[in-house]
Design a protein that fits this description.
The complex is a heterotetramer, with two copies of chain A (380 residues) and two copies of chain B (401 residues).
Chain A: H1 13-29, H2 32-39, H3 49-55, H4 76-89, H5 96-109, H6 112-123, E1 129-132, E2 146-151, E3 154-165, E4 172-179, E5 184-189, E6 195-202, E7 209-219, E8 224-225, H7 232-267, E9 269-270, E10 273-274, H8 279-307, H9 313-339, H10 350-362, H11 367-377
Parallel strand pairs in A: 1-4, 2-4
Antiparallel strand pairs in A: 2-3, 3-7, 4-5, 5-8, 6-7, 9-10
Chain B: H1 3-11, H2 16-30, H3 52-66, H4 84-94, H5 104-120, H6 123-134, E1 140-143, E2 159-163, E3 166-177, E4 184-190, E5 201-207, E6 213-217, E7 227-238, E8 242-243, H7 249-260, H8 280-288, H9 295-323, H10 329-355, E9 361-362, H11 367-377, H12 381-384, H13 389-400
Parallel strand pairs in B: 1-4
Antiparallel strand pairs in B: 2-3, 3-7, 4-5, 5-8, 6-7
Classes of the chains: A alpha+beta (380), B alpha+beta (401).
Chain lengths: 380, 401, 380, 401
């Protein structure tokens, strides 16, 4: 197997060190045994985990410096993707992707008041935020889930959102809402009257998702993030960011699942030989590792495009999501087949990767949604 | 043995129509109607208990006493000695009645173990066990795979060692579905280490509650624990427990594999060439999530429906080929198993594609909401259990092509 | 390999004999060498081929007895499917499927005049007919290609149809046209003024397809087949028939291609062993033969359903077309991969099967069209 | 050798920018602009002739004389001895000019054969052939596969037998693309039958128009005949024709396979991580057939576009891994080849799904109409030629994993 498993081949020395530090932190604070233990807790998150992670800068990388932000290399998206890849490898819980999206959004679009109220606390892991975007049926079109009705300069938010990661532990919600004026975003506290957070069960056991109902939630002008009716571009950038960080998490999970499978194929014997030496298994592993290498390659391109804010960043992010979404499921299914019966047992980690990667495929838009989006970007 | 019942049907040479009419009357008088709203079995939500199974045994006993257990099995062992047509007639009449639900061990007992015994065990063995099976007193599971030997039969290391007139069994088995509530395991053990590896194997009947047998459920990824692992610690067996010939277990295993692949049924399921309703689970899912008019979701739904029908028709064809002796039975049976193993995994995945984000989450206790995810987690069972897809491809390549 | 290759397992002795006679006729009159020679001729059909085939009853099986019809077993659809399977195996040219559809349609819907004028000649192979259904872009919705405008009891046909098999040698066209009154069918001679038959090149080299333009073609009331505006049911039955006969041809072609490949895999050696003994090839052949056996099974169900005119016949035909269409391409592609470079050469027959099966997949509706049709049948 | 040209660039240690400016001026003064409307190469509609190729040789000669041939190749053999960055700068400047089109033999000559020679041939051999290649006087093809040995190098039976100081070549080769208009074949022959089969092989330069060499085009399923088969009948060769060491052709072949898999380029294609236009062939097809708004067709179009971009990015990644020495080069190169072999076949099929019936027929001479069908017929070339998908999977499984 290829030694280098990073997303790209040109990490700086500082970035490589950061990657190692991140991996060590995860191994020390939340290894898979701990991930399993957390599956049965009410929050799904360990005490102090977010605060410790924040000390490593997990939630500061995309924030302005004056509000506690900063990243190792100055390339915040790439640094965050390094964390994401390691997180995926270790199936880490917690709202890493949505918190970074909210921080990024507020840093760019928030009022000074919003920034100073929220960002330092996010950066320090002392406050938690998440992003309300999709409808409960998995419709990711921005504005499709929550509706904002304007009444004399104030707003009333109504509707039901779904797949809101970790809303049950969030202090703040960034709500992307449709309105007569156009797409508008709001920052509202989870404790606001009329906000109902309903934790759900999910295929993925390592992250928590909630349905969030908005029953005539009042939001004043100071709660608006950015321009009323003018959030299209900001939401597009948030989506790209969420997509590439999620893709990086997926690639990390794929790599870990594949390595685990490869070791098994070399160690497990049948008919007197390692099963990996049978051509059927060998070829399946070769195809699977092709999907893995291709995923790493396209993820790297997408991360770089979003980092550099290139004109094609939205398209490349969607390409990466469409490809890696399917490839992640293919990989987990193929690995399962190589493991055979042992992969069907609860105590083996294979199913945790299967669950995670299958969930990743649909979060922030399933592959077919992104394919349609790509056609639309090209005015087809 | 139920000589009365047997007499009733065959000694009088009764006609199929008369049999059917009699069965209809008997069913109406003796069994409850099935609740039509009862959901199909959903693995991961259908945990059996030893206590719960007693009610099912009682129904099976009724069937036996009525003369409707083992309809095609030999009268010598408590069967009715009738034809496959009689079995089909009974199945058709009984469709709307509540028959015994032994869970997965039921299929193993009646569909795999007993049929393998009838082909290979001694008359004395059969006289001892088959009537008890037909009365619902013995549920059997397979003690076949081992932790270190999945697809590779020759890798079996569970051993039965001769000690005077006894056999002493040691080792471990795994993937025995339903062992935690069954009565017997049909166990493959190595009895001779001096011959080539695929020889020197023998099948034994192992009573599960006897000393030295430990059954430990294996928790599955769906949260249930239908599969078990067993540990044998100096378990005492006698020659009476041997099924088939000593050291010739390989041959018996081949027969068993054909039955396990779901083919060669005595009473072939007369799958009518009529498609069922359009993939009802997927249509329900698409409707619930508002995708019923989405052309991409509709393609996925139709694809599943097409495969469902094709798989049923393939089963008919393969069953016919096996009965016609058109080729190696075990090899042909691999077609059905491979179709299930590939189409099953695809179907589970299609559901997730139709459901997308909406199928990933559900409220606690919402069975409809969790069904696609549960089916997805069960999607590879047929690709792995009872011989992986790869083993079936080997079987087709080496025995049929 | 399984010895029996018939579509079903319960042919009568007469039918089995008929199958053998058919196979012998094809081998004697139009073996693959002849099929290749015909690829370069202007008509694509051998002299006297249709007439000889007619002597075996190829075009009579679905006609009423009083007009020269009759089949071996009395089960016309099954008998025709036996011929179709053998035709597919030998990649036979000529309008077998459309002529039988036209004969069937006229037999059920035609006027006495139409029947006596056309059917005996069709049955004898002395006249040729084909069916005009699809648009030139491959739209198979009945009525989408040709439009009939009513003018004082007469009709004017306009529009362009495509994928009309063998129109260049046809005497008669059965035209399925849309009109204000609804779907209406016409029997018009190819020689009628305004009918322009334009032979095209095609992927398939063993059959010919034409574009047929209708420029204000006059059709009188006597040219109408069935009820004006009431042809829906008749067209549906024609489509089912075309589909099952085509599926039978496909299954025959699949079987022949697979047998050829299997023999090659056993004979060709690499690394000192037959290539078929390598697990990668062995497993690919196993998967391919599964697709073949499944195709035979579903084709048999569809033929029987149409033969017995069961309520579900339309659905089962579409299921068979959807499955076999894709499976045929899969099979031909897999066989090609086993042949390797030799399968890329003109002189090897592999590409003729690939071309034929790929064409079959779209004729009378591509798989995705039939899948959509299945959903519609179920009122989804 | 073009000492003047070499001096001009390197002896003066000229900067990249100066080189680029000079190249720009030279191109404008010496080459024609490329017709932007000219269609890309469509296999099956691009037949070369020996006569037609002369015009291309003239352009190559101009490049050589201008000092722009073999930009990164050693000056000793007529190259310019510059860096990959110079090559990229030239490629970027030359994008809109009409460069020599030698068809498939061009890629083989410059991308595979010459680079393999530079790695393995003797200085004398290189001094004889490389300058002629750079001047457009020698086009090379591979004489590699044999009718009886496709994937299996060890199965080579074409033999060169020692006869005094000559070698006598007999046998046959196949799948040599473009041999009918090329000048030389780089030919693998068995020279020693007494050693294990993968040893005892030697590479030779075989002049195609010499006595005893017969070239016979192989008609392809697309109707063209780009591939050839050769027959060698007592062809006389000398020690000067040997490439690499006698009996060590296996090693040379491994190098060649890396180049053939399109990886390890000296001047890695600087594929920018910018997606191209949306699968233009498929969009044109969908528009022509009125399916541009059909959601099912759009999924297929986007799928192809996604794979196009992913394949390019994978190429970048694999090239980087090989240059970084991150693993076995030939094994890593198999990723690129396998991606091309699998995604290429899929893409050809997606076009037929988008085009459905409308892509099956076209009017005589309608290039747009026949393109999907032609691409479909070419769809498996990368899955087979130059090592099948199965061989690439072996390579990945055995050399990388």
């Amino acid at each position: 197997m290829i030694g280098v498993v990073d997303l790209d081949l040109d990490l700086t020395e500082d970035q490589e060190l950061f990657r190692q530090t991140t991996a060590r932190f995860i191994e020390a604070s939340c290894p898979l045994t701990e991930v399993r233990a957390l599956m049965d807790t009410s929050t799904g998150l360990g005490d102090g985990y977010l605060r410790q992670a924040a000390e490593l800068g997990w939630f500061a990388m995309l924030l302005p410096e004056e509000h506690g932000g900063g990243s190792i290399s100055g390339e915040g998206v790439r640094d965050a993707a390094i964390v994401a890849e390691e997180r995926g490898r270790g199936l880490q819980p917690g709202p890493f992707v949505p918190m970074n999206v909210v921080g990024f959004a507020l840093g760019h679009q928030g009022s000074e008041e919003q920034k100073s109220k929220v960002l330092p606390a996010l950066a320090a892991g002392e406050a938690t935020a998440t992003w309300v975007l999709a409808g409960p049926e998995g419709d990711w079109r921005p504005g499709s889930a929550v509706r904002a009705a304007e009444r004399a300069g104030s707003f009333e938010l109504s509707g039901t959102a779904g797949l809101v990661q970790d809303a049950h532990v969030a202090d703040w919600l960034l709500v992307t809402a449709g309105s007569d004026a156009g797409l508008t975003q709001f920052l509202v506290p989870t404790s606001a009257p009329g906000v109902h957070v309903e934790p759900q069960r999910s295929l993925d056991l390592t992250r928590r998702f909630c349905r969030v109902r908005f029953e005539r939630v009042e939001a004043g002008p100071a709660d608006v993030v950015g321009e009323v009716g003018g959030a299209d571009d900001a939401v597009e950038r948030q989506l790209r960011l969420a997509v590439v960080l999620l893709v990086a998490e997926s690639v990390g999970a794929m790599d870990a699942d594949f390595q685990m499978t490869l070791e098994y194929a070399k160690a497990r014997t049948a008919f007197g030989r390692p099963i990996g030496s049978f051509q059927a298994v060998k070829h399946q592993l070769a195809d699977t590792s092709l999907a893995l290498e291709a995923s790493k390659a396209v993820a790297a391109a997408a991360i770089r495009a979003v980092q550099d804010d290139r004109p094609e960043a939205g398209e490349v992010a969607s390409i990466a999501k469409a490809y890696v979404g399917d490839a992640g499921i293919d990989l987990a299914q193929n690995c399962w087949q190589v493991f055979g019966g042992i992969g069907y047992t609860w105590d083996h980690d294979q199913h945790l990767y299967l669950r995670r990667l299958t969930t990743d495929a649909s979060l922030y838009g399933e592959p077919s949604w992104h394919r349609e989006r790509i056609c639309a970007i090209h005015d087809l | 043995m139920s000589d009365t019942a047997t007499d009733r049907h065959t000694a009088t040479g009764e006609s199929l129509d008369a049999f059917r009419a009699q069965a209809r009357a008997w069913l109406a008088a003796n069994l409850e109607r099935r609740d039509p709203a009862a959901a199909g079995r959903l693995r991961g939500m259908d945990h059996k208990t030893k206590e719960g199974i007693e009610a099912e045994r009682a129904i099976q006993r009724k069937l036996f006493e009525g003369g409707y257990a083992g309809i095609t099995w030999p009268t010598d062992y408590g069967g009715q000695g009738l034809t496959a047509a009689h079995q089909r007639a009974f199945d058709e009449e009984a469709r709307d009645y509540r028959l015994p639900d032994f869970g997965v061990a039921g299929g193993t007992t009646f569909g795999v173990c007993a049929r393998t015994m009838l082909a290979h065990a001694s008359p004395a063995f059969l006289a001892r066990h088959i009537p008890r099976i037909l009365r619902g007193e013995e549920l059997w599971v397979q003690f076949f795979s081992e932790p270190g030997a999945g697809s590779d039969l020759a890798g079996i290391t569970t051993r039965a060692t001769r000690d005077g007139d006894r056999w002493i069994l040691n080792g471990s088995k795994i993937w025995s579905s339903g062992a935690y509530y069954a009565d017997y395991g049909m166990c493959l053990a190595r009895t001779n280490w001096d011959v080539p590896k695929h020889r020197g194997l023998t099948w034994f009947a192992v009573k599960i509650d006897q000393p030295g047998v430990t059954v430990q459920p294996v928790r599955e990824i769906n949260g249930d624990a239908e599969f078990c692992q067993e540990f044998f610690d100096d378990v005492e067996l006698t020659d009476d427990d041997v099924i088939g010939e000593v050291d010739h277990g390989w041959t018996v295993a081949q027969t068993m594999l054909v039955f396990e692949r779901g083919a060669g049924a005595e009473s072939p399921p007369r799958t009518p060439p009529v498609p069922g309703p359009l993939a009802p689970d997927l249509v329900a899912l698409a409707r619930r999530l508002g995708r019923a008019k989405d052309p991409v979701a509709r393609q996925a739904i139709a694809r599943a429906h097409v495969n469902d029908f094709v798989q049923a028709q393939l089963g008919r064809r393969i069953g016919g080929l096996i009965r016609a002796g058109a080729g190696d039975g075990a090899g042909l049976a691999s077609y059905g198993k491979l179709a299930a193993g590939t189409m099953g995994a695809l179907r589970a995945r299609l559901a997730m594609e139709i459901g997308r984000g909406g199928a990933l989450v559900w409220d606690e206790g919402d069975v409809a909401g969790m069904t696609p995810a549960l089916n997805y987690l069960n999607g590879r069972i047929m690709a792995i259990a009872g011989g992986t897809n790869e083993m079936q491809r080997n079987g087709i390549g080496e025995r049929v092509l």
